[in-house]
Amino acid sequence: MNSLISTSHISSSNYHAFESQTSLTVFRSSPSLWSLRFCGLRQEAVQFFQLKNRLVSGALKKRRHYVSAAASNGSPSKRKFDYDLVIIGAGVGGHGAALHAVEKGLKTAIIEGDVIGGTCVNRGCVPSKALLAVSGRMRELQDEHHMKALGIQVVSGAGYDRQAVADHASNLASKIRNNLTNSMKALGVDILTGFGSIVGPQKVKYGVDNVITAKDIIIATGSVPFVPKGIEVDGKTVVTSDHALKLEFVPDWIAIVGSGYIGLEFSDVYTALGSEVTFIEALDQLMPGFDPEISKLAQRVLINPRKIDYHTGVFASKITPAKDGKPVIIELIDAKTKELKETLEVDAALIATGRAPFTKGLGLENINVETQRGFVPVDERMRVLDAKGNMVPHVYCIGDANGKLMLAHAASAQGISVVEQVTGKDHVLNHLSVPAACFTHPEISMVGLTEPQAKEKAKKEKFKISVAKTSFKANTKALAENEGEGLAKLIYRPDTGEILGVHILGLHAADLIHEASNAMALGTGIQDIKFAVHAHPTLSEVLDELFKSAQVNVDERKPVAV
């Protein structure tokens, strides 16, 4: 979930277990199905019904010739099944896998016990973007200096209608949810309602007593907000991101536990709407999952000028909701000594300490699988591993439930990778090429390794790294928008031109990162990408200047190994 629903755990992993940061993998799916991807892979399905007859007809032809090849998860079987593929969980990951499976000619069913779209669409990426769109406009209208610099006069102060803002978020989620549902129905995916679980090899139960068989099974059950012990969530004054996205009220003072992506994005929303924010972070610095240089700049741009204060190196050991006229009470203890350090009294508290996998009740014991901290163990091809570390035939797990990279678009990419495998084409997703973004104002984005991670890798593998940087202050389009605050940073190998990581803070950073992530996914070196042409004047020239400033000692222009 590349959005508010991104994990900022009180340990060192931030925003959807975001230790390994990453980028986009390019998938070779048909042009028609490119329009079907969602939440990071594609947008709304507008042409589904026009494509339905042609795609379903083609899928049926492919289905008649479907043969499981050696690359499939487990040995081929001559048995007949109700479905070629059954997916448990209809979030973004399950949806992406289902559409790709239909394209490949597989008879596919998807099981959902809650609502189509999962966390991202209903309680994460999608509604959070609606709230952030409002906060961005409010912030701009409230910045008198910025508006005057553009020659704009705001006659009266900007205001907002809380319920209308909340309705905007809810309506957007509903619209995208309907689009997801219609896209699957239009292409012939069977949507089965009820809680799904595995009852045996290649057997899945859903609802009360419905049992179906499947050649292959994908677990895509996602995650739920993680709430540490000692914190009492009442859904009103002490809330998780699930509750906060409903925007039932805007508190005067709110404490946010966790300074990762979820916390940062909500701080952007709340401060724009008039709240004061206090961050509570267990580690010694804010935003510990970011590249340190980006964290430092983000604190100067996103924290210091706003009504935000913070406590670092402390745990919220106990949080009591407001009741009987008393405020929310938060007890802070030292992260190292565990001694009581301070007690805060605030109007509300948001628990943004990450997400936990939703894997209970899946019947994993029926296939001898034991979870690890709740996550389903998988190999690099998303094949589920049993208690002894052996591959479980025909069972895969994607997305937040496996913990490899808890981002919505990563789940979808993993699902597409699995479908490639079960239809005979081996495929391994390069997680280091999957991008991530934080949709604050300005935005933050990244792909690959941070500078400390790159240095550690270089030391271990005995090679040198270099760093190149460029400022948004040198970009014509950014200056035209009066948005020159920003930095782009490139970490690379000067001997091969390999891109190890790119980090951006600035206007539309979330959109700019994909040139770097695509280069990493395709194995394109700096010596080649620096010859790409960018339209002028555009923000894309920030990346153009960044790549051109890199000093690469490579004579021949050739792709680097992925």
TrEMBL record:
Which residue range or ranges hold the FAD/NAD(P)-binding domain?
A: 83-415
Q: What is this protein called in UniProt?
A: dihydrolipoyl dehydrogenase
Disulfide bond sites: C120-C125
Q: Does the keyword rRNA-binding apply?
A: no
GO CC annotations on file:
chloroplast stroma; mitochondrion; oxoglutarate dehydrogenase complex
Q: Which UniProt keywords apply?
A: Chloroplast, Disulfide bond, FAD, Flavoprotein, NAD, Nucleotide-binding, Oxidoreductase, Plastid, Redox-active center, Transit peptide
Q: Which species?
A: Artemisia annua
Q: Name one GO biological process term.
A: response to arsenic-containing substance
Could you describe the subunit structure of this protein?
A: Homodimer. Part of the plastidial pyruvate dehydrogenase complex (PDC) containing multiple copies of three enzymatic components: pyruvate dehydrogenase (E1), dihydrolipoamide acetyltransferase (E2) and lipoamide dehydrogenase (E3).
